[in-house]
Every structure is written in structure tokens, then in C-alpha cells.
Amino acid sequence: MSSQRTANSSSNPLVLLILDGVGVAEPAPDNAVELAYPGLLRELPGATFPGATSVYTTLRAHGTAVGMPSDADMGNSEVGHNTLGAGRVLDQGAKQVEDAIQSGAIWHGTWPDLVRAAHGHTLHFIGLLSDGNVHSNISHLKAMIERAVADGVESIAIHSLFDGRDVSDHTAEQYLVDLEACIERCKAAGPADVRVASGGGRMATTMDRYEADWSMVERGWQAHALGTARPFHAAAEALAMFRKEDPGVSDQYLPSFTVVDDANEPVGRMRSGDAVVLFNFRGDRMIEIYRALADDPFDKFARGDDVRDLFVVGMTEYDGDAKIPRHSLVQPPEVNSTVSEIVADAGLRQFAVAETQKFGHVTYFWNGNRSEPFDRATEVYQEIPSDNVRFEERPWMKSAETADAVIDAVTSGEYAFIRANFAGGDMVGHSGDIEASVVAVESIDIGLTRVLDAITATAGTLIVTADHGNCEELHERSNDGRVRTSESGTAIPKKSHTLSPVPFALIDFQQRSLQVSGVADPGLANIGALLLELLGLDCPDSYAPPVVDVG
Q1: What are the chain's domains?
Q2: Which of 461, 452, 451, 449 is nearest to 512 (CA)?
Q3: β-bridge partners, 350
Q4: What is the per-residue pLDDT for 349?
Q5: Of 105, 183, 255, 504, whose CB is crowded by the most CB atoms within 10 A?
Q6: Quick one: the chain helix, strand, coil %, rounded to 5?
Q7: What is the tens place of the pLDDT at every residue in 187-197?
Q8: Residue 329 and residue 169: Cα distance in Å, rounded?
Q9: What pLDDT is attached to residue 38?
Q10: Could you confirm whether 77 is annotated as catalytic?
Q11: Given this model, what pLDDT does residue 9 score?
């Protein structure tokens, strides 16, 4: 796609800033980007910068543009960084699983081993009860339950985690009703004992990531494996009590619970030799519960000694380097020739930084689902520990520290390519809190401005974009665009990602000729080839064409 060039100098670095969850939408009372104090971010469209050439456009960051099954599917951080780092559209977890179920491929490979392990034992399913298609899809769970019953599995326990983040909040009961209907159909078809055995909100139970809060996983262990969480006789009873005790509680923060029988014994307590399916296809929030279920030794919390030798299966491969899980139902495609791999092969030094909540995205997901650097001699990763509080309580998050790290990398003169993620637009946006999201955006903007000053001083090149939208639309809307309201007439907060395009700005103090290319409907996949071109490196034919023509 391009001819060989002279490689970029580290004294004039190329910096990519990914503003997580900062999409582009019309000004509105719920658009935190437009409500924020006017700064660099809002000036990017049409702005000029002394001593630089620049271009601005918007990119698609959802649906088929990032490998999701349909354009009704929102983007997310995993698929966004996968696509950015790969320079092309990859089939993502949701589509891989959907295709495997449609073709029947999922019932081969590991599935027969799973069924054999479950005979005489209980088959447990743990995952997010949602159709957000970001971490999971309830349709996949129902298909597996129905197939397991058809294959003669007699005891099935479902450990359901509630969403309110990738789907509308306060909808946990709806997904539970859907699941219970599937359970009743299965019971009518045969003698299988199928039950919802435990649960909790995804940000309170089980679904921690990047080892930010192992206590969340421990609560999941107690609910799912030991059956020692707060007892209820049914999941619906638990939800009703939690709503009564805290009417405003978000689905994602619902406390953990265990379902018990009339003798107050847990109905889905795990026993040695049981089989377990982690039915999320996205890996980052399943790795820790997998380790709790499968690792020996394990030292993150006390598991007890009476749950051993579980046969644990993941929906997909979560970490190819660490071989997590050891068994999976759907095999991922191999991702090679990522941007970072090509940069490493060229011997150029590169630096990646993010706070804990997004560290895996600028490393693992960016690298094509690879945790380790391609070349430790030329790659440096820096993780900034995230605060262990609700993100709306400290909405500035680690924007200042992330900017500090980027500026240090720029001024060091050591790195040809620097990439960073600013997490606030996504993590705070998920709260649905408009005021907090405005603070998050303003904090990001301050960091962005400081980084630009450092790049100006080094005559470098800056690219600003996002992996998906979120904080630019914080009210739920109906199909005709009207804000949805509660019975009291107040706007319903939107806590999920959006279908919005994302910004793309290129500011080049090398003063090269820049023009937005004629690529139709450009998306995140069109950035990879541009990065390689700006670094003076050849681009694989498999890459999508660059979003900008560089003269």
C-alpha cells in the first residue's frame, strides 16, 4: 500500500491520544462534551495551529465498522482498540459466537467434553445477563442451556450478573423474566433441574478487571461457588428487596445474592468435579473469576478447600499469552501484523500508558489480544493505578497523571510512537451523571492541551481520536430521538455506549501536506495505515486505507 520510507525520528514523536468514550453529537443538555468549559477539544473542528498543518473529520466507531454483527451494535473499548491496533476490521467476539452458533461449530470441539464433565455433576453458567453485545448476549446463554438439556445434562445452575451499563439501566428484571421463560421451556422438555442460583450487579460482583478490586471477585466466589451471599428463595425476590431498600440502585451496583431452597441450602453451590462456563465472550472482566475457579495455587483470597477440580470453560479465548482459559468454546482468529508489531520489527521505540481501567486496552487489545510486548528492548508500558471508588466521585480520574506520563515520554526524546488512553469520558459516562461527566471532559481537555504544548515544542505529530461514544449522550432516547422520561417526568440517564461517531484530528508540526482521503465512511480501522505512514513504515496490504493522505 505504501513504499519504503525513512523511519520517523524519536526526536519528533508521533503521539496518539485515545479519549475513551468521547463521541461527537449535537449540543444538548445531556452532551457533556459540549457542556464542558470551551477548550481544545471543542476547538478541534476547523482549528489551525501555528507552525503545523492539520485536518479534522469524524470516524465510525460502532457496528460493522469495528467488526460487530450489525450497525445496531454500539462500539466499545475492546473492539475499538482491537480495530485501532490492527489497522483493519476484525470479526469481534459477538460476531464470532453468533456465527459459531448459527453454523453449529460451537457444539464441536470443547462442548462434548463439557457435557461429559457435567454428567453426574452440575453445569454452571456465569456471565452478564444482557443483550448489549459488548460482553455477552443472553441469546448465547439460552442457546447453550437448551443444547445442554437436549444433550442430557440434568443439573444446571445460572449465576447471573446484571448490566445497566451496556443496556438501559433498571432493566435487570426484564432480562431475568426472559431467562426464566427459557428455563420453563427447558423444564417442560425434559427432567433437567435448571435454576438461577446467584447473582449481583456487574460493578459489585465478579466482573473486576486488571486486578483493580479483587474483593469484587471474592464476593462473586462467595455467591456463585460457596453459596454464602445474602440468601433469597428466588432471584426475583432478591431484586425486589434490593429495589425496596434502595429504589435508585443501578443494575450494575446490585448487591450479590444466593438463591436457597426451603431448607435454606444454596441451590447452585459448586461441588468438586462440576463444570463451569464463563459465557461472556469479552475477556477482560472474566479473567479474574476464571483464575479464582481454575488456578492452583491461588492467593488473592481464601477460597476454602471444598471446591476443587472444576472443569472451567470460557466462551472465547480471553488471553492468548497467559492461555486463559485453557478450554474455550469459540476459537478467536489469529491477529498478526498489528501496528505495534510492525513498529517493533522496525526497531523503533514505543511507549503505551493508561490508568488501570484502560491499561489492558492500550496493551492487550491494541496488540491483537497479546499481553506481552513484541520487543521488550524497544517497548515500554506504564500503568497508572486507578482510584478504587465510583468514578463519578472522582471524575477527573487520572487525566493529569496520564498527561504527565505522555509529556515525559515526548520530552525524553526516546520514543518514535506514543499512545495513551484517557479513561474519564467512558468510565464516568457510565454513571449517567452529567455534572461529573462534564468534569471528566474538562480534565481530559486540560491534559490534551498540555500534551499539545509538549508536542509543539518537539515538532512532533499528534492524533486525537476516541474508541467509541458515551459521554456525549447521557439521556436515554426513543427511536425518534426524544428523551425518555420516568413516571415522575425526569429524564432517564443513559449509562451505555452510543452509536455516535468519534472525533479525529491530526496536527502535524512536520508541516506535511495533509488531506482527508476519499475513503467512504471511514472508521477506526483507517487509522492504522496512517500511523505507519507517518512513521515511515511499509503498510501490509491487509490494512484498510488511511483516513488521511499525507504529501
Answers
A1: 14-90+335-550 (3.40.720.10), 94-330 (3.40.1450.10)
A2: 461
A3: 379, 417
A4: 97
A5: 504
A6: 35, 20, 45
A7: 888 789 999 99
A8: 30
A9: 86
A10: yes
A11: 63
Query: How is residue 536 written as a grid cell?
Result: 515511515
Which residue, chain included where needed, has cell 482491537? 82
* Unique residue bearing C-alpha cell 460482553: 135
475: Cα separation from own chain's centroid: 21
Q: How far apart are CA 319 and CA 212, in angstroms?
A: 17
User: Of how many residues is the chain composed?
Assistant: 551
Buried b (16+ CB within 10 A) or exposed e, 93-123: bbbbbbebbeeeebbeebbeebbebbeebbb
Tell me which DSSP letter residue 363 carries: I
Instruction: Please state, as a whole number, how many other Cβ atoms lie within 10 Å of the Cβ of residue 45.
Output: 12
User: Catalytic pick from 10, 77, 155, 496?
Assistant: 77
| Residue in the block written with cell 426464566 | 180
- Give the orientation angle of helix 93-103 with respect to helix 138-150, to 10 degrees: 30
Mean pLDDT of 164-169: 91
Q: How many CB atoms lie within 10 A of CB 256?
A: 25
Pull the grid cell for residue 533: 505512514
Tens of pLDDT along 512-544? 999 999 999 999 999 999 999 999 999 999 999
Q: What is the pTM of this model?
A: 0.78
Q: Which tens digits make up the pLDDT trace of 122-151?
A: 999 999 999 998 899 999 999 999 999 999
Give the tens place of pLDDT for each residue, 445-483.
Answer: 999 999 999 999 999 999 999 999 999 999 999 888 899
